[in-house]
UniProtKB/TrEMBL annotation, chain A:
UniProt source species: Hymenobacter lapidiphilus
Database matches in Gene3D superfamilies: FAD/NAD(P)-binding domain
Keyword Flavoprotein: yes
Keyword tags: FAD, Flavoprotein
Named cofactor requirement(s): FAD
Protein family (similarity comment): Belongs to the FAD-dependent oxidoreductase family.
UniProt name for this protein: FAD-dependent oxidoreductase
Organism placement in taxonomy: Bacteria, Pseudomonadati, Bacteroidota, Cytophagia, Cytophagales
Domain FAD/NAD(P)-binding: 2-300
UniProtKB/TrEMBL annotation, chain B:
GO cellular component, one term: plasma membrane
The protein's name in its UniProt record: 4Fe-4S binding protein
Keyword Thylakoid in record: no
Record GO terms (molecular function): 4 iron, 4 sulfur cluster binding; metal ion binding
Organism: Hymenobacter lapidiphilus
Ranges in a coiled coil: none
Xref: InterPro entries: 4Fe4S_Fe-S-bd, 4Fe4S_Fe_S_CS, Electron_Trans/Redox
Pfam families: Fer4_10, Fer4_5
Length: 443, 458
């Protein structure tokens, strides 16, 4: 059996590793136009910052692929014939498959602003994006503007500011990552941005990109009418699935490649997973298109079962989790914490008066069951929270045992006591007795 | 475009500010002043140059650390590590490595005093410390006192740099403070005071098999004789009890870190002066194989040698009489001098700061076996949060490819881990945590990620 996987990102690679376990005899080929080997996409920023080199962000050493008999093809897949079951490559050769996975990922959205094709204007998602950024900011960029108040935007801000550039962020919402973060969390992120000298313009969008005589960006005009001089402009307004190959093969697409719960596309023996896939019927509370490292990994694993035909299971995301880092501020979230609390839910938020530390627990007003957690500047144990959320544990039980979820390093300040005290003050009808703090010898 | 090289070679570097240049110039001037301090024919002027050099180096380095790290918000500050020549095996690193190696070669083989008390090329530097040595140890300085002074100063000055750089982490603050305390108190002042009181120069923070001769029959005999009935017995007792009882018990509860990155002087230098070089350790599988081959051989050698020496001393096997002494000297030369000094420290800027600890130290091997098989210590991976970014592996000075475990959701239980905690600090997703047990399910990974069982070792 020949499995051909288009894309060597986290989805394609997780699928390859899982498939290798399920079918030790299968021939598995990974095709990628972007890079010869799998690398960690979220780590691209650290190469630019100089924390690591490119070879350091490869999750596996190069011998790993040959020893596990995973064939790597560094080429672009340009054509797909689902009847003949072949994939055409730009190097002139073609691959015949028994099962095909499209894990083509996504690319940065460029918007439709006048001037968005100018030199010095780019997105930041792929390795070629990083190469372009590296070349383009090596010299002569004093001021940079970033459009978009999300995760890529804040990464770019950190990268450029670290090189001494003056960075301004244009953010459409009234606060940072307004669609995701509640106000207190966004305010803490804003504090980080300020401490690192990032200028923010909230409720401001890009109006026009202005060119110099060489066809390079020299300034932008905002919707507030302000003209900001800049020699580099980052478009961080989200990503869109790479659909070229799916379209070439005549697959049904919408925003992404349409797939059923087994991640099967409209064509026989062709599957799609990760950033480029769109679920036809997402479960309640789940997104049709998810462009995330963790969901990419989960979908890659799920689709391997379907490809190998060994006990295929429908894709279920399970309890949500995510994490990020905003400059020096770490963020972890478990379960669901919407930007504005849902009806029927309390949102308990503790914040240190001066330090950058915040903990928010959402719970049902009727059953007191916890529904979600946000922490900033604190580390919480994933397994413990997953169990609490799964069991719909009451917030009183969770707070009483909060120390069990503390994942901060030794000697770090422990806030469980003050957190519980504030909860008792805010919800005197549900008084909690803190039973468990973190100990030196206890996990 | 070949990404691997160009991305790093072409990456923009921020301009070095005038203040930073000035402070680094002070350090450079101080280092240059060591030349007249060594070679100036006028001994008095040479002495002044020596103290001016130490002053400039210390003030320049402390000022630089305060300027570079103190002004920024507390947090991980690893920008440009692989972009600066000094920390990425560039020209500066090679020069530093050659100078350090050269110093060790001179120290070990060309600075023994002759009949006139002349310490070779280091003579003036050694004698510049005479007043200080008289005050502390009630005797003139020698080449080892010069070395100890340099060593301690390096740990203290670069320790303050570490305190500033990692001030967001109480773990690093306390750990670095502990290393500075043990070096200054137990490995510098106390041995000096013991000499002042006519007692053996004894290091209470070094144990067999790192300080291999502390359990050799000759040293034991000498300690018992010169240490006097109370102190001498205590010194021998201390060595034996720590080596055979203290080490297993403490390692059971805390892992080998209680020694390697809290107490030990070699670890102390690596964690402070060697901190800028921690990313240079080799993470490859090949390096791991060599590590296992070499370090356990050294441990085997020293155990065997110690046993032979005792058998020889007992007189039970007369044939051993002529062999044990040369063997002991050969070990001292090859392992104690060449490996731990010349390679261990001289190659800091090229191979990272823990070359000796990783490949050569028999104490680390002994602690490592205990840590792997009889300890509660592990580094726990936080569920499925790993993004395989590689920051943990990058900062591991022992060359452990930490992400191989983290991306599988597995705990990290490795003999070589010295528990410096830097992987946990550098992780941008809060995935890694150093924990002391319990031992039940110590190898149990997270249920939230399905570990691929594909091999990472053959």
């Amino acid at each position: 059996m020949h499995l051909v996987l288009i894309g060597n990102g986290i989805t394609g690679v997780t699928c390859a590793l899982t498939a290798r376990q399920l079918r030790p005899d299968a021939r598995i080929t990974l095709v990628s136009a972007e890079s010869a080997h799998h690398f960690s996409r979220p780590a691209l920023m650290y190469v630019y910052l100089g924390h690591m080199r490119y070879q350091d962000i490869k999750p596996y050493e190069d011998w790993f692929w040959t020893e596990n008999r995973l064939e790597l093809v560094h080429a672009t897949a340009t054509g797909l014939d689902t009847a003949a079951k072949t994939v055409q490559l730009d190097n002139g050769s073609a691959l015949t498959y028994d099962k095909l996975l499209l894990a083509t990922g996504s690319r940065g959205r460029r918007g439709s602003w006048p001037g968005s094709e100018l030199a010095g204007v780019q997105t930041f998602v792929t390795l070629p994006d990083l190469e372009l950024l590296t070349r383009d900011t090596r010299q002569g960029v004093q001021q940079a503007v970033i459009v978009g108040g999300g995760l890529i935007g804040v990464e770019l801000a950190e990268m450029l500011a670290a090189k001494g550039m003056a960075v301004t962020m244009l953010i459409r919402d009234a606060r940072y990552w307004g669609a995701i973060l509640p106000a207190e969390e966004a305010a803490l992120v804003q504090r980080q941005l300020k401490a690192h000298h990032i200028v923010t313009r909230y409720e401001t969008e890009l109006e026009e990109i202005l060119a110099d005589e060489n066809g390079r960006v020299r300034a932008v005009r905002t919707t507030a009418g302000e003209e900001l001089p800049c020699q580099w402009l980052g478009l961080a307004i989200g990503v869109e699935p790479n659909l070229d190959l799916a379209r070439a093969g005549g697959l049904e697409t919408d925003k992404g490649v349409l797939v059923n719960e087994h991640l099967q596309t409209s064509a026989p023996e062709v599957y799609a997973a990760g950033d480029c896939a769109q679920l036809r019927d997402p479960a309640t509370g789940e997104m049709a298109v998810e462009q995330l490292w963790y969901t990419g990994r989960q979908q890659g694993e799920t689709v391997a079962y379907a490809l190998c035909g060994t006990a295929p299971r429908p894709y279920r995301r399970g309890t949500w989790f995510n994490s990020a880092k905003f400059f020096d501020l770490e963020y972890q979230t478990y379960g669901r914490v919407p930007a504005e609390p849902d009806a029927g839910e309390h949102s308990f938020c503790w914040q240190h008066p001066t330090r950058d530390a915040l903990l928010r627990i959402n719970f049902r007003t009727d059953t007191l069951a916890v529904t979600g957690l946000n922490v900033l500047g604190l580390r919480q144990r994933h397994d413990t929270w997953a169990a609490w959320l799964q069991a719909a544990a009451p917030v009183t039980e969770v707070l009483a045992n909060l120390g069990a979820a503390n994942f901060d390093p030794e000697f770090f300040r422990q806030y469980e006591k003050v957190i519980v005290a504030q909860f008792n003050q805010q919800f005197p009808q549900h008084t909690v007795q803190l039973r468990r703090r973190k100990g030196l010898f206890r996990v | 475009m070949n990404s691997a090289q160009t991305l790093t070679a072409q990456a923009p570097l921020p301009e070095v500010a005038g203040t930073e240049k000035l402070l680094l110039t002070l350090v450079a001037l101080g280092l240059l002043l060591l030349l007249p301090a060594t070679f100036d024919a006028d001994a008095q002027r040479a002495h002044w140059c020596f103290f001016a050099a130490l002053g400039l180096i210390s003030v320049g380095a402390l000022g630089w650390a305060g300027w570079k790290y103190g002004r920024k918000p507390p947090g991980v500050q690893h920008n440009n590590l692989w972009l600066r020549a000094s920390t990425s095996r560039g020209a500066v690193a090679w020069v530093t490595g050659i100078v350090l190696t050269g110093f060790y070669v001179i120290l070990y083989w060309f600075s023994s005093p002759d009949d006139q008390g002349n310490y070779g090329p280091l003579n003036q530097l050694v004698h510049a410390l005479d007043p200080f040595s008289q005050w502390l140890r009630n005797r003139p300085s020698d080449q080892w006192f010069l070395y100890g002074t340099f060593y301690t100063l390096a740990i203290l000055v670069m320790g303050v740099r570490g305190l500033l750089k990692y001030r967001h982490s109480p773990y690093h603050l306390i750990r670095t403070g502990s290393l500075m305390f043990f070096q200054l108190g137990f490995a510098f002042l106390l041995p000096g005071l013991l000499l002042a009181f006519q007692r053996p120069e004894f290091y209470f923070s070094y144990f067999w098999p790192l300080k291999q001769d502390y359990l050799f029959p000759d040293t034991v005999g000498y300690l018992l004789k010169d240490g006097g009935p109370a102190l001498g017995v205590f010194m021998v007792f201390w060595t034996a009890v720590i080596s055979f009882v203290g080490v297993p018990v403490l390692t059971y509860f805390f892992g080998k870190r209680w020694y390697c990155s809290w107490v030990c002087g070699c670890g102390g230098l690596a964690e402070t002066a060697g901190d800028p070089y921690r990313q240079l350790s080799d993470k490859s599988r090949t390096a791991w194989k060599w590590e296992v081959r070499i370090i356990y051989t050294v441990l085997g050698l020293i155990v065997l040698l110690t046993a032979l020496l005792w058998v020889g001393a007992s007189g039970a096997v007369p044939a051993l009489q002529g062999i044990t002494q040369p063997l002991s000297q050969a070990y001292g030369f090859a392992i104690g001098a060449v490996f731990s000094g010349v390679i261990g420290v001289g190659f800091y800027p090229l191979m990272g700061a823990r070359v000796w600890c990783r490949f050569g130290c028999p104490m680390a091997a002994y602690l490592g076996l205990l840590q792997k098989h009889f300890s509660r210590f592990r580094i726990t991976t936080n569920g499925a949060q790993c993004i395989s970014c590689g920051n943990c592996s990058n900062v591991c000075e022992m060359g452990i490819d930490v992400k191989q475990y983290a991306q599988r959701g597995e705990p990290i239980i490795r003999a070589s881990c010295v528990g410096c905690g830097m992987c946990s600090t550098a992780c941008p997703r809060g995935v890694l945590n150093l924990e002391n047990g319990p031992r039940d399910n110590r190898y149990q990974g997270s249920q939230l990620i399905h570990a691929d069982s594909l091999r990472i070792l053959s």
